[in-house]
Each structure stands twice: as structure tokens, then as C-alpha cells.
Amino acid sequence: MSDEEHHFESKADAGASKTFPQQAGTIRKNGYIVIKNRACKVVEVSTSKTGKHGHAKCHFVAIDIFNGKKLEDIVPSSHNCDVPHVNRTDYQLIDISEDGFVSLLTESGGTKDDLKLPTDENLLTQIKDGFAEGKDLVVTVMSAMGEEQICALKDIGPNLMADSDPYAGIMVVVI
């Protein structure tokens, strides 16, 4: 036996895989697919008849979920395609910094400060205006394949902490 210590450096991700395989023939409209290494939402699927070489083909038309670009792919229906794990998480908006980063309140009570404001002009205006008016805003963050972006906004009413009464909105439960 040897007294040497061995150190192995792992380059693998400790978390779950960013995609999972799914047979092309089972992917439907409004589902997700990876095309050209981008997470996309399928907007149209058409399947051709079996050709002389034996494979029916699926033609996918999809929209990149982060930048809105249209992508297309043709895959034999019996082959596997990569499908991204897409998650949607709601966070309460705490602050917007000068450089366009947002500060979000996580469910565990911590903050998430690594997201920028969305590039979609309509959503960006709604977030900035609502925040300036002192409203309590909840943003929905979509994440897939290591990317995250704010994709939706909910107004949950006026910001109670902005009121002059420091005890407004505090409920005491006596057991």
C-alpha cells in the first residue's frame, strides 16, 4: 500500500443535467427543445411521411426563450433530441441599481443580486414604473441551461414598507 495522497479535480457540474433526451416524435407544440445549443419553445411541429430510407422526419420551428429569435431543425422522429430543464421562480423585487442590476428577495430570505433588468422594452418599462411608484412587485425568472432572465411581472399591491406607519401590514398571531 502507498501512503501517497491522490487529488482528483472534477470538471463536472455537481447539479442535475441541463438537458434530458426525448424522442423527437413525442415533442409537441408549446414544449421545449434545444436547437443550436439554445433553449427554445416549440411553436410549430410538422412530421413528414416515412421516406425511402425509412425515417419519418420532424420539422421543428421554435423561438429562443431568452432572445426571441426563430430557429428551425429537422430531426428523424425516432431519434432523441435534447430538451432543456426550464424552471420558473418568483422573487420579490427589492431594489434596482444604477447599472441595471436588480436585487431580489429569495424564498429563504436571502437576496439574489446577479440578474439584470430584462431587454424587453414593455416589461422593462412596467418594472421601472411600478418600482418608482412604490408598488410591491414580484418578478418571474425563467432559467434554463445556465441562463436566467426576468420574463414576467406581477403587481401585488402598494409597498407596505414604503408607508409612514412602520407597523402597517404586520399581523400578530397569538396561540
Automatic annotation (TrEMBL):
<dbReference type="InterPro" id="IPR008991">
    <property type="entry name" value="Translation_prot_SH3-like_sf"/>
</dbReference>
<comment type="similarity">
    <text>Belongs to the eIF-5A family.</text>
</comment>
<feature type="domain" description="Translation initiation factor 5A C-terminal">
    <location>
        <begin position="85"/>
        <end position="154"/>
    </location>
</feature>
<comment type="function">
    <text>Translation factor that promotes translation elongation and termination, particularly upon ribosome stalling at specific amino acid sequence contexts. Binds between the exit (E) and peptidyl (P) site of the ribosome and promotes rescue of stalled ribosome: specifically required for efficient translation of polyproline-containing peptides as well as other motifs that stall the ribosome. Acts as ribosome quality control (RQC) cofactor by joining the RQC complex to facilitate peptidyl transfer during CAT tailing step.</text>
</comment>
<dbReference type="InterPro" id="IPR020189">
    <property type="entry name" value="IF5A_C"/>
</dbReference>
<feature type="region of interest" description="Disordered">
    <location>
        <begin position="1"/>
        <end position="21"/>
    </location>
</feature>
<dbReference type="GO" id="GO:0003743">
    <property type="term" value="F:translation initiation factor activity"/>
</dbReference>
<dbReference type="InterPro" id="IPR019769">
    <property type="entry name" value="Trans_elong_IF5A_hypusine_site"/>
</dbReference>
<comment type="function">
    <text>Translation factor that promotes translation elongation and termination, particularly upon ribosome stalling at specific amino acid sequence contexts. Binds between the exit (E) and peptidyl (P) site of the ribosome and promotes rescue of stalled ribosome: specifically required for efficient translation of polyproline-containing peptides as well as other motifs that stall the ribosome. Acts as a ribosome quality control (RQC) cofactor by joining the RQC complex to facilitate peptidyl transfer during CAT tailing step.</text>
</comment>
<keyword id="KW-0385">Hypusine</keyword>
<dbReference type="InterPro" id="IPR012340">
    <property type="entry name" value="NA-bd_OB-fold"/>
</dbReference>
<dbReference type="GO" id="GO:0043022">
    <property type="term" value="F:ribosome binding"/>
</dbReference>
<keyword id="KW-0648">Protein biosynthesis</keyword>
<dbReference type="InterPro" id="IPR014722">
    <property type="entry name" value="Rib_uL2_dom2"/>
</dbReference>
<dbReference type="InterPro" id="IPR048670">
    <property type="entry name" value="IF5A-like_N"/>
</dbReference>
<protein>
    <recommendedName>
        <fullName>Eukaryotic translation initiation factor 5A</fullName>
    </recommendedName>
</protein>
<feature type="compositionally biased region" description="Basic and acidic residues">
    <location>
        <begin position="1"/>
        <end position="12"/>
    </location>
</feature>
<dbReference type="GO" id="GO:0003746">
    <property type="term" value="F:translation elongation factor activity"/>
</dbReference>
<dbReference type="GO" id="GO:0003723">
    <property type="term" value="F:RNA binding"/>
</dbReference>
<dbReference type="GO" id="GO:0045905">
    <property type="term" value="P:positive regulation of translational termination"/>
</dbReference>
<keyword id="KW-0396">Initiation factor</keyword>
<dbReference type="Pfam" id="PF21485">
    <property type="entry name" value="IF5A-like_N"/>
</dbReference>
<dbReference type="InterPro" id="IPR001884">
    <property type="entry name" value="IF5A-like"/>
</dbReference>
<dbReference type="GO" id="GO:0045901">
    <property type="term" value="P:positive regulation of translational elongation"/>
</dbReference>
<dbReference type="Pfam" id="PF01287">
    <property type="entry name" value="eIF-5a"/>
</dbReference>
